[in-house]
Amino acid sequence: MTTQNTIVNLLLLFFLLKSITAQQLNNLTAVFVTFNSTTDIITYNQPNSTFIQSDDLLDCSLSPLFTYNQTDAQYDTNTAYSITVSGIAVQTSFTFSTIHGNFNLSYHPTTCSSNCQIVIQNNCPSSINFLNYFDRVVLNISGYPQLLTYYVKCRH
After folding, report:
1. Do residues 77 and 104 touch, judged by C-beta distance below 8 A?
2. What is the 3-state secondary structure (H, E, C) of the chain?
């Protein structure tokens, strides 16, 4: 096999894998679920614009990000919420992080190979002040081209 044939074969394999991944997440749907409401994050692979952070700077002129407001009781008990995901055909990993590091999220599962529900706890600090009462959470879904972001306010 010549070098040129090897390169062509590698390129074909790369595009085939990209096509398969895109097809496997083609119907991706994710819903943010709390005790009293649901909000679409992704609907058939299209992100809800309120989960898209268009700039890393805090700018009031930007479209507002979705905000999860915890009540004092939810904060006191570290009440979990979830994201329900469907439209997955292969092993897909989920990674959550925070922008400011004001709290350390815990969540499970970290991977799904079909429809699943990811349970999240914010683990907000035990002592809240004006520097740490909120953070921006970033969700990265492997194979999905867009990072998703939302605010969490630890107390009202």
Report:
1. no
2. CCHHHHHHHHHHHHHHHHHHHHHHCCCCEEEEECCCCEEEEEECCEECHHHCCCCCCCCCCCCCCCEEECCHHHHHHCCCEEEEEECCCCCEEEEEEECCCCCCCEEECCEECCCEEEEEECCCCCCCCCCCCEEEEEEEECCCCCCEEEEEECCC
pTM above 0.90, yes or no: no
Q: Assess contact for 155 and 72: CB atoms under 8 A.
A: yes
24-153: CATH architecture: Sandwich (2.60)
130: three-class secondary structure by DSSP: coil
Model pLDDT for residues 30-83, shown as the tens digit of each residue: 999 988 899 999 999 999 999 998 765 565 555 588 999 888 889 899 999 999
Specify the DSSP element, H or E, that contains 112: strand 111-112
H or E element in which residue 40 lies: strand 38-43
Q: Where are the domains of the chain?
A: 24-153
